[in-house]
Amino acid sequence: MTDPFGTEVLRTSVLAAWRGSPTRFREDANAEEDLRIGGYRDRLLVELAQNAADAAGSEPGVLRITLVDGELRAANTGAPLTEAGVAALASLRASSKESGVGQFGVGFAAVLAVSDAPRVVSTTGGVEFSLARTRAEVPDLASERGGDVPVLRLVWPVVEDVPAGFATEVRLPLKVDLSLDDLAAEVPDLLLALPGLRRIEVGSQSWERFVTEDGVVTVGTSRWLVERTVGELPAELVQGVEHRPQWTVSWAYPLDSELGEDVLHAPTPTDERLSLPARLIATLPVEPSRRRILPGPAAWSVLDAAAAAYPALVARVPAIERTALVPLPGFPLSEVDDRLRTAVVRSLRASAWLPLASGEWIEPSRARVLDVGSEELVDLVEDALPGLLDAELSAPVHAKALAALEVPRVTTAEVVAALAGVSGDPGWWRDVYAAFAPLAEVDPDVREALASLPVPLADGRVVTGPRTTLIADEPLPGLRVVHPDAVHPLLVRLGAVEAGAAELLADPSLRENVARSLEDAEAGLDGLDLVETVLRLVDRAGLRAGEEPWLGSLALPDGAGEWHRADELLLPDSALVGVVEADAFPLLSKEIAETYPRSALVAAGVVDGFSVVVDDEPSGPDHDLADESAWWASVPDEPSRVVAVRDLDLVADWPAALRLLASDPVTWRAVTEPDGYTGWWIARHALLAGKSPRSFRLPDASLLDGLFDAVPDLELPEHVLRAVGVRSSLEIWDDDDAEFVLERLGDADRAIADAVVLRAYGALPEGDFAPPEQVRVLSGEVAAAEDVVVLDHPWLLGVVPASRVLLADGSEELADLLDLALASEEFEGSPDHVGEIVQWRDLGAVRMACELLEVALPDGVVVVHDELQVDGQRVEWWMADDVPHASDTPEGLARALAWVTQRWADRHTFAALITDPRAATLLG
Q: Fewer CB within 10 Å, N side or C side of the chain?
């Protein structure tokens, strides 16, 4: 067999070195092991593609990956295998890539991850490496390492044909499972990084690399904008495993999607993580593993060159999209990422690529951008603010990028400050206001900043701030009236006043005169002119009652000529006359009442009917309402809204007052407000026939008879009676009401049906009310509470006198509420005689009754007595030590059965069925 590459000489040299120095063998084995399981463990396709690109030369080549008979094969075009290339393959410490064509370096060690017998065949010849053959050459040395030998040090010639159209093919008999799909996933990135390849084929799939004239590279379905520059390192900086003074830098920006987290490509992927929006592909000095760059002046020089080229890439992107390429602040992913991002941002800040409003370009270091975006505003103020960027860059999407470039944002307040020295005609100012208007509509901060906006006046002055200006149909001497050509709705939005009746009422001097009008009138000054002025303006302004509370201090005369505040006077013909106490309000002078419209007088505060307080955000009981603090404390949750009728404590005729309240929807809503003040106050303080509304019941509420009296006929509708507290059902509202009901129950003069008493005691809520002194008992009488017990066990009823048992369903909770003793605490006992112990199932009538009621028959026993006595008293049933005792009667057995089956409510049904255990008894 021919040996065109002199492999025998190479083997002889290596074997001699190993045999002469076993240490050299171990060094080679360790070095290859480091490359196999460390530096190149997962770079198979990367290294095969890099070798193919190096072999391609000036014409981009083709790489084809196939699986044939258990072999992974990588065929490439370009320069064939050379003797130097074979020497590089068989060396662990050298690379023959200085020529950049058709040579192999230490990266070839990546093939050992998948094969123990790689072959490289070419049009110039072929070579083979073999784990088995190497072991056979040095069995003793191999044995020392457990068979682990350096595979890529001994090379043998091999004769095999190369596929047509290709120069070289690497053939790897696989020792592991390998999927072409996994390799295919790496192809697009490799084609982008290796311009020396134009096509890569993997199995039946193929990818092509196309480059357009404008520098857009298409790989598969992905498009990249690529900016490329070349240079050469100074001689003193050339270093590294691969000595290449020439460097190439390519920035690749994905046009169809965001790049996301990436790695530095040198030019194939390294482990140096990057976070830039574009991919960097550069020929940098790298460590032998090609995973990390080789730190030092040479690497930093290339990275600085890359950063300097970055603005050229950015400038090729449409102006409004360029900020997407700015590296944003964040924790760097690597030392290289940190250094590169810093250099890129520095380069971007010094290059002119941001668009000005004028259409020119400017460096970020000299630029500024409006905080709010408005093309019209930018066009108007760009002369006052040099370096102002295009309005579109004010959008939030650009904010982070511009902040990273330290481009200052010009706030509205700063724009307003810059305009302070601008002399524009009124029409120009109107355009400025129009540009600000949409921003002011949605942003309160903008409105606040515009409070200092210059405003041109009709008299030629320019004043600061619209709030102090007036807008009128004609200029008024001495007033700050806006120039008519500058008038814009924004000025009104910012506080300028369109002068009319309401605006004149808002004049500070007028309000001051009203505030001291009563003091002036009492001092003898004529106040009728002020009355005339104010009431006519109020009428023209169409004000409503309560709309301007300050008007209530206007001094007006009463019928006797005495002066009072307007809100302390009552209209002479008001519906409240006769409803409230006679001295509650003085009556307004009839002359004033007849001279001015009623609506104007009421708007000024003169009382005409019940007034309503509305507070949607109350902070406490501070609305000057009678007993407001007590109401505030009585509601379960602190009121979130107050709607209340004033002056209820002044009412003298409550039926008339209620009819008046019900006739006005506004006041009636206040009465019926859930948990509201008005309903609460009326229920406690109003008087119907001299009594509280809650002491009465509606005429048809017969179930409350005896406990509450029927309300007398006061000509009030039922819904009004209900709303003010007249009872329609047995509902106890609070502790005060509980004490009232208990007092009624303890009133011996009241004839109250047992059913009403039972419901009343059962309706008592948990609370902190005082226990009663008198209570109703089973005998129907009223007894002292200290002598009465609550029946907590029903069998005790046989021994406790009815005159001592509360007329209520007994419970410990009720006893605690009423401060009464439990019957079981004062009475106890046991059957006087021994009865007959009987299984429940042996009682036929009991068994049949349970079947008819579908009740499970008890498992236990009952003690049956001919006559059951406890402490000498005859009883129907008893419980002793959890064992039921019963007299031999349907009533006794039924009660014991109902108790043990927990069907106490069915005790009377049980009695009937035990007496006559037939279905007819149940159904009839």
A: N
